[in-house]
Amino acid sequence: MTVQHRPRIVIIGCGFGGLEAAKALRGADVDVTVVDKTNHHLFQPLLYQVATAGLSAPAIAAPVRHLFRKQPNVTTLLGEVSDIDVSARMVRLKDGGELAYEHLIVAAGATHSYFGRDDWAPFAPGLKTLDDAFDIRRRVLLAFEAAERETDPTRRAAGLNFVVIGAGPTGVEMAGTLAEIARHTLPGEFRRIDPASARIVLLEGGPRVLQAMPIDLSQRALEQLHTLGVEVRLNARVVAIDACGLDVLPAHGAVYRIDSSCITWAAGVAASPLGRLLAQSVEVQTDRAGRVVVEPDLSLAGHPSISVVGDLAAAQSYPAGQQPRAVPGVSPAAKQMGRLAAVNVLRRIAGQPTAAFWYRDYGNLATIGRHSAVVDLVLPLGHYKFSGYFAWLFWLFAHVYFLIGFRNRLVVLMDWAWAYWSFARYARVVTGIAPRAHGQPPPASGCPDS
Amino acid sequence: MTVQHRPRIVIIGCGFGGLEAAKALRGADVDVTVVDKTNHHLFQPLLYQVATAGLSAPAIAAPVRHLFRKQPNVTTLLGEVSDIDVSARMVRLKDGGELAYEHLIVAAGATHSYFGRDDWAPFAPGLKTLDDAFDIRRRVLLAFEAAERETDPTRRAAGLNFVVIGAGPTGVEMAGTLAEIARHTLPGEFRRIDPASARIVLLEGGPRVLQAMPIDLSQRALEQLHTLGVEVRLNARVVAIDACGLDVLPAHGAVYRIDSSCITWAAGVAASPLGRLLAQSVEVQTDRAGRVVVEPDLSLAGHPSISVVGDLAAAQSYPAGQQPRAVPGVSPAAKQMGRLAAVNVLRRIAGQPTAAFWYRDYGNLATIGRHSAVVDLVLPLGHYKFSGYFAWLFWLFAHVYFLIGFRNRLVVLMDWAWAYWSFARYARVVTGIAPRAHGQPPPASGCPDS
């Protein structure tokens, strides 16, 4: 007996790309299955706020199946993809289970890359998941706690060195917020240390912070970081990381050491391993970061039933009447790719030609700390660049606006209003002091005196 | 050189007892050090709400040092006590460090007891800490997720069996809330299972639920649990627990089995191991639950410089003109003990006689679910017992009132208002899917078909 069924579309990953793809299929006569490794869609642009105790996890994470409760053509599954069998058109899950598809959208995103030095990971966690954010929150808060207990002055000072590696938006936000915590949130709560004496060092391998921004906004961001008391070191390459600190190679001069038990990695991004897996089975190319090279319509060469979107895709944008250009790894691009991939699937089902991807770039923005941000706005009527207080307000409302769910917007706005007036950060809860095996905070007392 | 110093008071633990003790010393000419294993004071009566995804952790946990920021005679330390050296008047911490004291208040609280069956712990986590709550939240939500993925109908049904062991306040609240989640929160979000078909079983070894309550309120609570669809089994003793379920011995009949991958332990309470440690060094008695037997003024016999309060103390109440009676292990008693112990320390320093403990019992209350609670109120003007909607409102405002911190009260009220109107539970975020080594959720698919 052959059962006629509606076209089955499997979407792997429910970040910005996957979520938008599934939403774009609302009302369509198809069966959609969304598979994700976690049970929540994460609003990654605010993840650093969870890491720095400004927001609780539920404020920026919405359960995937709750988001689709009123979209009956979507089935949500929690699971990790172990294999994509292209010839059988089947996605296989870890711990058993398989999903047959006619159309596959892969939106598995990216993870952090240590540029081949994965041995650094235990000492310098990155910031991609809620577990990462909890790990960093734990390290930051425990560093101050350990310093309050430490009796040796040298060790105590080293315990208050915070290092952030990489001055992209996440690194700049982390460093700025750490400075705010040290200077504004914690003073008055310690009796033996002065939290304001903490050193926050931001290391960047390139010549400026926020390299995706116009050069004058980079300069503004640098000034704002200085005002907040962040030590920014440009053209500084990390050559070693261990449990007690790191070694830095400056542009001029010799390698020097920074002692620190709290190092955050915000430097490199690598595509999900699923990209390589896919590339092996369909013989498609990946770029240096492991991203899958896609056709103009985001499908794979020779495999129109498979599309790749978001941070996992090495995609080009084809603006009308202009040269194609590379699509950056930012959330608006992922959302637009997700939407187009879904629409292209519906076109294929209807026997229509697919459209090429055209990335609408509305600009770029990053916050540095209280009252400081930089905004580079690209609108049809012109190009606007601004920084400081107004940019910070703009950043704030833009992020609240794009948060998923009315409730979350309200909660985040209120949390921020509270933090703004009280300088307090309410989510200063450390859990899992018995640490995760692979994310063990280094025993500061085991470090040699410098 | 001998430096004159103010009397040093060390308080171990910052639950209800320790927190109140330290607060009672505000303004006194003493040096107070509060040591706690975690960095937060936890409002345990609402911990089940974190476990059932109704509240986020920061809503019920306030950083200890933030609570004391305006009390300059208090130093907060994060640390675990490894030893109390009574002859040297010294508290030793794990990972080094020691604290000299003239007066010591031990408020280390309680943990769960498996009645000698600690091998059950990995399969039936208790609910005492935030990490416990996250562990239970993970198991509850992952059970529904696994059932949605499961293709075998028998296993799928077993995957939706939730068992709560122990029908005290925590057990009743857990079971009632699980029923609410299954019947009201999740329906509409799954495509392959009906969450409302979940079975919630509440096992109680004794003859009634909420045994600390008057018998008619126990009866009301039982009826409300039935209305919510909870299967209550009284006089039912658990004789075995493993990764796939448990064996129950009823009052009449043979042992039977319930398959379940989500079992919560709310049955036994044991004093902190610090009680035994203390008892060994000062030769004072402990009771069966490991609680330290204290003098009428809460100090230890022969060691007036040491007091024990809260769940760690086997204390008697000495109401004026009445027989002494045992003090129950509830938060109002812990708070009152903490306050008296602090006052008695100040009396000792001033050379005044100390006072005996007199527990003011204002009654007892427990909630069962939406619109259902039982309240047993003991006021000077009389004894009031009520249940149902009004009791639920009373429970709600009483809990919000006693929450620490204005912000937390506001947040919890708003979260509840939201949950009330939308039936949603916003904190449905599962983290740490790679589970903790000692709290590993059992592989449901590895269980035999029943």
Overall description:
The structure is a homodimer of 450-residue chains. By secondary structure, chain A is an alpha/beta fold. Chain A has two domains: 8-37 and 79-111 and 270-349, FAD/NAD(P)-binding domain, CATH 3.50.50.60; 118-267 and 371-434, FAD/NAD(P)-binding domain (3-Layer(bba) Sandwich). The first copy, chain A, has twelve helices and 27 strands. Chain A has helices at residues 16-24, 47-51, 57-60, 64-67, 130-149, 153-159, 169-185, 215-228, 273-282, 331-349, 389-402, 406-422; strands spanning 8-12, 31-36, 40-42, 61-63, 74-78, 81-85, 90-93, 98-100, 103-106, 110-112, 161-165, 199-203, 230-233, 237-242, 245-249, 256-259, 262-265, 269-271, 292-293, 299-300, 303-308, 313-314, 316-317, 325-326, 363-369, 372-379, 382-387. In chain A, the strands form nine sheets. Chain A has a six-stranded mixed β-sheet, with helices on one face. In chain A, strands 13-12-11-17 form a four-stranded parallel β-sheet. In chain A, strand 12 (199-203), helix 8 (215-228) and strand 13 form a beta-alpha-beta unit. The longest helix of chain A has 20 residues, at 130-149.
What is the mean pLDDT of chain A?
91
Question: What's the domain count of chain A?
Answer: 2
The level 1 CATH classification of the largest domain in chain A is Alpha Beta
Please state the second-level CATH architecture of the largest domain in chain A.
Answer: 3-Layer(bba) Sandwich
Number of helices of chain A: 12
Give the strand order, joined by hyphens, for the main sheet of chain A: 5-2-1-9-21-20
- The structural class of chain A is alpha/beta
Subunit organisation of the chains: homodimer
N-to-C CA distance of chain A: 76 Å
Rg calculated over all Cα atoms of chain A: 23 Å
